[in-house]
Amino acid sequence: MTVSNKTALVTGASRGIGAAIAKRLAQDGFTIIVNYAGNAAAAEDLASVIEKAGGRALTAQADVSDPAAVARMWDAAEAAFGGIDVLVNNAGIMRLARIADADDALFDSQIGINLKGPRNTMRLAAKRLREGGRIINLSSSVVGLYQPTYGIYAATKAGVEAMTHVLARELRGRNITVNAIAPGPTATALFLDGKPAAVVETLAKLAPLERLGRPEDIANAVAFLAGPDGAWINGQILRANGGIV
After folding, report:
1. What is the pLDDT of residues 89-111, one digit of tens each?
2. Is the C or the N end of the chain the one with fewer CB within 10 Å?
3. Residues designated catalytic
4. CATH entry, 7-185+215-238, from 3.20.20.105, 3.40.190.10, 3.30.70.640, 3.40.50.720
5. H helix runs in the chain, sequence order
6. How far apart are CA 240 and CA 183, in angstroms?
């Protein structure tokens, strides 16, 4: 599947799942806006990889929790490419603590990036995404697992899922789909860092397919929703987790 003359904005795209999504959409023909918060070098490296493979990419720094920064990024994308066709809300953080022990800083930081961030981008997309566009949010399968220490993180992702369902209905008549993908445990460097091998093996066995997800697994699901074959999918949560929940 290839597209042409379409632009995709991927938030939090400098590494991990976001980088895999950016590379896959570039392979499919999208011009990619590689959003990052602080790691400029990683974002530039990714853009270079995409361009060396024959694609087009532009890096864009913005903290998605800052509405003004998101607006500036959107303006720059429109100036460079004429508009945005696909928004992938991938940026997020995970800071774990029992609800009784979580301080306000932990709570506020996750709300700011994981919930307010997608709200900031979806608000602009609802007004400025090009006709026939796609909004693809990243949730998490922890929403259905209800594990101790994941309460605040899961709450932010449940909020993303609720906004996904509602915005799909609010955009009636615009031919814009709004969906979310909820990965399970996925073998990114950030996920694996600091985990003993026995813990990783236990997590890998949770799903009936008995392995961790790969970033490319999630990127493939995004590519489906972003491409022509996903045009009839709207207001849905796709749990790309190997059957874990």
Report:
1. 999 999 999 999 999 999 999 99
2. N
3. 153
4. 3.40.50.720
5. 16-27, 40-52, 67-81, 104-110, 117-128, 142-145, 151-170, 189-192, 197-205, 215-226
6. 5
